[in-house]
Amino acid sequence: MSENESFTKKVSMDKKYYEEYYHLERNHWFFTARLNILESQIKKHISRNPGKVLNILNIGVATGATSQMLDKYGTVTSLEYDKDCCQLLEEKTGIKALNASILELPFEENSFDLICCFDVIEHIEDDQTGVNEMLRVCRENGHVFVTVPAFMFLWSHHDEINHHFRRYTRKNLLKLFETLPLKVVFNSYFNFFLFFPIALFRLTISKLLAKKQSDSTGSDFEIMGKSGMINSIFYKIFNAENPILKSGLSLPVGVSLMAIVKKLQK
Questions:
Q1: How far are the Cα atoms of 29, 57, 84, 171 from residue 188, in angstroms, in the given order?
Q2: How many Cα atoms occupy the beta-carbon half-sphere of 229 within 13 Å?
Q3: What is the per-residue pLDDT across 170-188, written as a single tens digit (0 to 9) for each?
Q4: CATH at residue 181
Q5: Choosing a second label site near 204 at 20 to 30 A (CA), which of 56, 58, 124, 212?
Q6: Strand pairing of 54-59 and 74-80?
Q7: Which is it for strands 98-99 and 182-190: parallel, antiparallel or unpaired?
Q8: Into how many domains does the chain fold?
Q9: Quick one: which of 252, 256, 178, 192 has its CA closest to 221?
Q10: First to last CA, the chain
Q11: 148 vs 71, 152, 180, 224, 228, CA distance in Å?
């Protein structure tokens, strides 16, 4: 099997999952609170000049919630590898995503002020090439903003359903950005307050549920959030981290991990 064929097999999600994902991105506690956190970080570290219109590349746009948020801050180019997702995205939102791979970004060097890659590189076997490509198309003094799932001991059926290759620690994520002169503007774990209950769920209950036959995908997103009350409670808990992260405090653990880096002039 060629590298491209392997990449296709691993990255392409089931069409059914994308249908679920569209609703999850707009209603599920994880995605709605995460979107608030991501936007706060962009406001704090990247979009400080209200008059400047950023040229933004959003990689792995999925069903478009992050591109719709980023549209407030500049001109957004949405890129998505999966053709079915691109089609669903246009049908649901009108966003015409470029169908291309992070491993070969179809742009010239120094093309974008901001490159966002939210929960994408864990889907790629050769994550270093993906990061190198982002840095290549990022302008000098521009930013790359990445989020990933954290800690391999949290690996579960959720990761298998989402075709992940790995989960990250702070050390091995930042190591990917050592290829060029860069400044790490901010990095932190997040989804901190729910870290221990989610870890317990991942290590026990989710493994039992994964063995059962179900009409659902079996993703944690689909399981943890069906109840409106639980969804509301978890949103408030997760979203409570936003003021902490906005203050510049880096959290010591979390279910997820973020890094914002600035590409320096050579």
A1: 20, 22, 33, 11
A2: 0
A3: 999 999 999 888 999 999 9
A4: 3.40.50.150
A5: 124
A6: parallel
A7: unpaired
A8: 1
A9: 256
A10: 39
A11: 22, 12, 21, 19, 26
Closest CA to 147 of 38, 30, 10: 38
What is the rounded average pLDDT for all residues in the chain?
Answer: 88
User: What is the maximum span of the chain, computed from C-alpha positions, in angstroms?
Assistant: 55
Q: What is the mean pLDDT of residues 114-129?
A: 97
Structural domain of 89: 3-263
User: Residue 48, Cβ neighbours under 10 Å: how many?
Assistant: 9
Query: Of 87, 75, 77, 93, whose CA–CA distance to 26 is shortest?
Result: 93
Helix axes 83-93, 15-27, angle to 10 degrees: 40
Angle, helices 29-45 vs 15-27, to 10°: value is: 70
Task: Tell me the pLDDT tens digit for each residue of 183-238.
Answer: 999 999 999 999 999 998 888 875 565 555 454 455 555 555 566 899 999 999 99
Q: Which residues contact 140 (CB under 8 A, 6 or more apart)?
A: 110, 263, 264, 265, 266
Q: What integer pLDDT is reported at residue 8 of this predicted model?
A: 46
Alpha-carbon distance of 29 to 243, in angstroms, equals 17
